[in-house]
Specification:
The complex is a heterodimer of chains A (about 160) and B (about 450).
Chain A: H1 2-17, H2 46-58, H3 64-75, H4 80-91, H5 102-107, H6 109-121, H7 127-139, H8 145-153
Helix pairs in contact in A: 2-3, 3-4, 6-7
Chain B: H1 3-26, E1 40-46, H2 60-64, H3 112-115, E2 117-123, H4 129-138, H5 156-163, E3 171-174, E4 200-202, H6 204-207, H7 210-216, H8 224-239, H9 255-273, H10 285-300, E5 304-309, H11 319-343, E6 351-356, E7 386-393, E8 399-401, H12 414-421, H13 425-429, H14 441-444
Parallel strand pairs in B: 1-5, 1-6, 2-8, 3-4, 3-5
Antiparallel strand pairs in B: 2-7, 6-7
Helix pairs in contact in B: 10-11
């Protein structure tokens, strides 16, 4: 009898502690966030530019010693565009780049353009930008991914965040 | 003064003050035109702190270390005068002879002093390196200049690009490293001038040293046909991201100039590999920098090139090393002038070569002794504000100006002098950024 009472009390305690789970929602909808070029007002310093560029092209972080040397070299040249273009041409002469092939670009130019804008500028192209870029690539059969990536990496927008 | 007169005059002055910046911005309001004295200027910033006593005064060890009878000239390419005949330590080392006992033979058949204008006693505006370099390039005493910031006042490059219309590829700064704010000297951050008028710049020990070779030398050489679409794309992208002047983070060349500079860098590495970079016969860090300045001279034939050296700064801790560096800096300076005369015929007769230290060194030594038991010298006292300047070349008379007891000129004179050479003296002096006591060295005499 005593055991029965204890069991009943225990069951009552457990039952009393149970509550229906309530699902709270705040009306937030999922969205992809991208940068706005109008908000890119700060210049990337040499270290940031090189880190971002290297990771972009090789899909792996740059080593500290490589970063230090590259930063020093860029700093030693008065026109940063000259330095950046030289560094880029050096990268494109190495193995291990993770970039689409020219055939992949040609098979779906629109997707390539959108992905390139997202990859370099962290934003979608405007309709005007997309149209110009698609037409330019279509018209120029000799244009390679390397050339397009060089244009993007050397652009002013890529040097600001 | 009556109230009405006061108001009238105040209004006139306020109006003038309001209009002056606008007029100056055009760069023409005060232009009187002028005849250029030369088409090219090379400014050798003979920096690192050169003590007056061992350079132009030729006292060698007699003054600095109290060694009687050990006076003499250890800068035979720049100055007239016989070399010391005792305790020679600044030359090259030959087997079986004491270290440094063989002076480097003079390169120039005639000293710079004999061929041009020497200001024997010039007042430096600072006893420090960076402010001194700023003074040489801005014509301003730069008392409020901070480290790790661009010059506060416009550099000669900016004056020349804005008022004389020089292109970026016509103005070059060759720094001897990237430390101590050195790479910032190619342009000020002045709101009226700034990076849009800045000069191109290399720091050869980095750009063309081991780092540069590793990072740049393997670059692809694109044909013009390949480059065109890259520039097209960049141009298109830049059009939709226009920058204000205040957002510029670099000097800007045209596409053609950029292609030229990149080709030059690639060629330098090719020449390096083939051992074809011309160098002063006796090597030194300063000589290395000057050799690359000569490469730039040969390729771009710049209207204005400033090159910085600084080996003599070893004087803080080693006087023997300082003497050696001073002797080699003289050798490298002579070599550069000789190189221009012998190897760049297009400019040899229309170039002016200016040489000046950025500051001097102390009268009294610090307690650090070197291997010869000689004391070292820092730079902080009045003696460190005593320097000299030299000028040689097209339309430069042969003159010796001033003396130890009769100082003539200031280091801030260098910028007005260059402005005078290129015929933009009035515009530069009217900019409001030049030391009010400065004037062209041509006018000093």
């Amino acid at each position: 009898m005593r055991n029965f009472k204890l069991l009943a009390i225990t069951l009552l305690l457990f039952l009393g502690s149970c509550k229906r789970e309530t699902h709270v929602t705040f009306g937030v909808e999922e969205a992809n966030l991208y940068e706005d070029k109008a908000l890119k007002t700060k210049s990337k310093n040499e270290a940031v530019y090189i880190s971002v560029l290297y990771t972009n092209l090789y899909q792996t972080p740059i080593s500290p010693s490589q970063l230090y040397k590259t930063q020093a070299v860029i700093y030693s040249i008065g026109d940063r565009n000259v330095a950046n273009e030289m560094v880029l041409s050096n990268y494109f002469n190495t193995q291990g780049l993770t970039i689409p092939s020219n055939a992949e670009m040609r098979s779906d130019i629109e997707s390539f353009v959108i992905e390139t804008y997202k990859r370099f500028f962290l934003r979608y192209p405007s309709e005007g930008e997309k149209t110009w870029m698609i037409q330019y690539i279509t018209r120029n059969s000799q244009l390679s991914v390397e050339m397009i990536y060089t244009g993007f990496a050397a652009s002013d927008e890529y040097q600001y965040y | 003064m009556r109230r009405r007169d006061f108001i009238t005059k105040s209004a006139a002055l306020a109006g003038a003050g309001f209009l002056a910046p606008t007029l100056l911005k055009t760069g023409t309001a005060f232009a009187r035109g002028g005849n250029a004295k030369a088409e090219h200027v090379v400014l050798l910033m003979f920096a690192g702190g050169v003590r007056q006593q061992e350079s132009v005064l030729q006292r060698y060890l007699e003054d600095s270390q109290g060694v009687a009878g050990a006076a003499g000239n250890i800068m035979p390419n720049l100055f007239n005068g016989a070399a010391p005949d005792r305790k020679i330590v600044y030359g090259t080392s030959l087997p079986g002879l004491p270290p440094g006992s063989e002076p480097i033979p003079r390169l120039l058949s005639n000293t710079i002093e004999n061929s041009g204008m020497l200001f024997r006693e010039v007042q430096a505006q600072s006893a420090g390196h960076y402010v001194g370099l700023n003074t040489l390039l801005t014509g301003n005493a730069g008392t409020a200049q901070g480290l790790k910031t661009r010059p506060r006042y416009p550099t000669i490059f900016e004056y020349l690009r804005r008022h004389a219309g020089f292109k970026a590829s016509e103005c070059w700064m060759v720094a001897n490293g990237i430390g101590n704010s050195m790479p910032l000297l190619n342009s000020s951050d002045n709101a009226d001038y700034g990076l849009q008028y800045g000069a191109n710049m290399f720091a050869p020990p980095i750009t063309f040293g081991s780092y540069g070779r590793e990072i740049l030398a393997n670059g692809k050489s694109y044909s013009q046909q390949d480059l065109e679409p890259m520039y097209d794309i960049k141009r298109f992208l830049d059009q939709s991201f226009s920058l204000g002047q205040e957002q510029y983070n670099t000097v800007r060349n045209t596409e053609e100039e950029r292609t030229w500079i990149k080709e030059f860098i690639r060629n330098v590495f090719v020449k390096q590999s083939a051992g074809q970079i011309a160098m002063p016969p006796v090597g030194s860090g300063d000589g290395y920098n000057i050799a690359y300045a000569a490469e730039i001279m040969r390729e771009f034939k710049p209207r204005m090139l400033a090159v910085n050296i600084g080996g003599v700064d070893s004087c803080h801790s080693n006087f023997t090393s300082y003497l050696s560096a001073l002797h080699r800096a003289d050798h490298a300076a002579g070599w550069l002038w000789q190189y221009i005369q012998n190897n760049i015929p297009d400019i040899k007769d229309n170039t002016i070569f200016i040489i000046a230290p950025e500051c001097g060194r102390n009268l009294n030594p610090n307690p650090i002794l070197d291997q010869n038991d000689w004391y070292a010298f820092d730079h902080s006292d009045a003696n460190a504000r005593r320097v000299w300047s030299l000028m040689v070349g097209s339309n430069v008379p042969q003159l010796s100006v001033g003396s130890e007891s009769n100082p003539v000129g200031r280091l801030t004179d260098i910028v007005p002098t260059i402005a005078d050479i290129f015929g933009i003296y009035d515009e530069v002096m009217a900019s409001g950024y030049i030391d009010p006591l400065a004037k062209s060295m041509f006018q000093r005499v």
